[in-house]
Amino acid sequence: MKIGRSNLAALIEKLAASGRRVVAPKDQGSYTDFGEIQKLAEADLSRVTTRMSIKQFFFPITEPILTFAISGNETILEQTAASEPQPTVIFGSRPCDAASLPILDEVFAWDYEDQFYLRRRAVTTVISISCTDCDDSCFCTALGLAPNSTDGSDLLLTPIADGEYLAEPCSDKGTRLAAEHAELFHDGDADKQAACGAALDRLPKPMDLDAIKAWLDEHFDDDFWAEASFKCIGCGACTYVCPTCHCFDIVDEADGEHGVRRKNWDSCQFGQFTRHASGHNPRPDSASRWRQRLMHKFKYYPERFSMRLCVGCGRCIRACPVQMNITEQLKRIEDMSGADGNAR
Amino acid sequence: MSKELECRARELLAGGSVAAVIGYAEGAVPDAAAPVVITAPDEAERLVLSPFCYNNLAVYLTRPEIKKLGRVGVVAKDADIRAIFVLMQENQIAREDVHIIGVSISRLGDPSAECRVLPYKTHEELLGHLVKNVPPAELSAIEDVAQLEDADRTERWAYWQNEFSRCIRCYACRQVCPLCYCTSCIAEKNRPQWIETSAHERGNFAWNITRAFHLAGRCVGCGECERACPAGIPLMKLNRKMAKEVRDNFHGYVAGYAFEGEALFAGHRPDDPDDFFE
Amino acid sequence: MADEAAEFEPKIVAFVCNWCAYAGADLAGTGRLKYASNVRVIKLPCTGRIDFHFILKAFERGADGVLVAGCHPGDCHYTSGNSHARRRWAIFRKLLEFAGVDLDRVTFAYVSAAEGAKWAEVVNSVTEKVRGLGPFAEYHHMNATAEGRSDS
């Protein structure tokens, strides 16, 4: 089915008026980032993608998880508002963003069910817009994704001719949403591939991810890591803009008699990330930390969950102050794996 | 221009006077150069010099992996040279452990900018060049600072609260800065926790104020922090304000115009301003 | 009709050096001088030990004003601690001002061990100055959000 632009505007207004928070990319000058909108016109959908990903709506950068107070001999704990997240509609995410959600679902619903994440997932609807263009940092296709993938979206809109969008419900939530507003949609089909032709022409071809993993399996100790990571300065920009990175730290901020326990983003790229209480740090240099990044994303996570911890959005490449380029590195590993197997 | 740079690097490496040269190589995306370290003379052809050599390579000089190598060469633009001088002044690197390959780029980011390798070989010559051609007085282009200074106090508070609200505490600003070389930053200490790690307003305020003050009198204005910030926070406004106050309160002091002698906050004078004391 | 709100009592944190300002405060005490009771005193060996984080932390803990008091130039028990401090404060206060903090909330004073009267006078004047400014609402708002007492 399809939806025209003015009906899409009406849909957004209805959703915003329905007690749900609607967030979409908004102009911030040299980039766009998600912010609350009441009307479609407030959104800026002109850029390839936003600077920050949508993970912040499921896994906020800092989240109070409980408060505590000491009263006499007792400690009083209180749940915080995180247990009642606000129903939200994410509008204008890209297919790569949406694809990160099934990936994150694996770890957040694994041996411990993270209610802070899962409750937000339950009350959030994702309406993505396919990419009709891309930039040099995008590489979703290298990982087997596509600029018009439905993975993780509840409703996928693909821009076609005359200001119209092809509308595909991709989940029960999406189907229900379309049904609730059926009057705004109309019948019709369109060629999704043609609509995204410009992007597809420019995006890279698939990488041999199995060969890359096979090389990673055998080359934990390799000179490659030190040389490849030299210029890394050890900030957390790549991990923080990444849709799939999910490390966090639990901290207590207290003043003796009351405090807040918070769940904060953390980064394996920080120098002190793996510092033990003893003072020993098993990842003391950029080589070991950069290796961890690639291993986690292309070996450990796939071994555990059969999914790669990367969606090819390219944010890390755009954000890196020294141009650590993950696609460049993966290509080098692919070459090394192909050239002579494991003998390097 | 890259040819001259290549020759200089090759000469240094072949002659054994440096164990490595830290410079710029082709980046992975157009209009970008990226840091590289080369250790063999033949690698010298990888070095480039372009208007897109943004990074301040002095940041690598305090890395343990680099210090282990002994004497190194480093390609340095005007501000980068001054950063190296501050590092020497603060005893973080020995003057004999670095050979500075000075370069001049007339306008960073402008494809038509002029780039050249400077003919100076010693620290003294480079300092002389800076004093003459990049004098301290020119570093006080601070109109946007004046605009904020003249604004109402509540406007300033609202301005910075808004800017800091986007801070995600990635510490890219700290990590790109050559003068942020503490092996354990105060932001990483939690016994006690002076700066909350959470990215709420209070934590972000404490972090950004801390960094601005810790760089006062030391920042050389390379601008890398602001360029690296993924959230577009105008960090250089804070740094320029600090540089202005340092210059106005301490006899025209500007960081990086000496590689010996006392750093600003290591000393004191009887005539230091104190009209604000009761 | 509701009563007038009780008069605002500002919370002032004073960082003082052991040898001069604290002794001066002590002298005010032994001299039974009456002065505002709004000040909580934190004693340090020397003003040179005072890190600017102490001032920020005082505001984080709810202070409406901060006083830093130490030896007159030349009198420092450790020779030059107060001189190092003085140089730092000249710049730090400009940073606070630039960030939008009202500098009337942060006061620096020289108080010697013999200046009991000056101590009382400084505390009184700081208290009245900060009372006039009202609670440090901007910082209190940041505190409330951080402590989960209001929506971010």
Structure in words:
The complex is a heterotrimer of chains A (344), B (278) and C (152). Chain A has 344 residues and is of the alpha+beta class. Chain A is 34% helix and 21% strand. Chain A contains 12 helices and 12 strands. In chain A, helix 8 packs across helix 10 (286-305). Chain A is globular. The radius of gyration of chain B is 20 Å and the shape is globular. The termini of chain B are far apart. Chain C is 43% helix and 15% strand. Chain C contains 5 helices and 4 strands, in the order E-H-E-H-E-H-E-H-H. The mean pLDDT of chain C is 94. The chains are: A alpha+beta (344), B alpha/beta (278), C alpha/beta (152). Chains in contact: A-B, A-C, B-C. Chains B and C meet through helix 6, helix 8 and helix 10 of B and helix 2, helix 3, strand 4 and helix 5 of C.
DSSP strand count of chain A? 12
Distance between the first and last residues' Cα of chain A: 52 Å
As a percent range, the share of strand residues of chain B is 5-15%
Let me know the average pLDDT of chain A. 94
Structural class of chain A: alpha+beta
Which shape of chain A, going by the Cα principal axes? globular
The number of helical elements of chain B comes to 10
Strand order of the largest sheet of chain B: 2-1-3-4-5
The tally of helices of chain A reads: 12
Unreliable spans of chain B: none
User: How many domains of chain B, as an integer?
Assistant: 2
Dominant shape of chain B: globular
> Gyration radius of chain B, to the nearest Å?
20 Å
**What percentage of residues of chain A falls in helices of 4 or more residues?**
25-40%
H/E series of chain A, N to C? EHEEEEEHHEEEHEHHHHHEEHHH
Amino- and carboxy-terminal Cα gap of chain B: 58 Å
> Major sheet of chain A, described briefly?
8 strands, mixed
Order of strands across the biggest sheet of chain A?
3-2-6-7-8-9-1-10
Classify the beta-strand content of chain A into a percent band.
15-25%
Quaternary status? heterotrimer
Calculate the mean pLDDT score of chain B and round it: 94
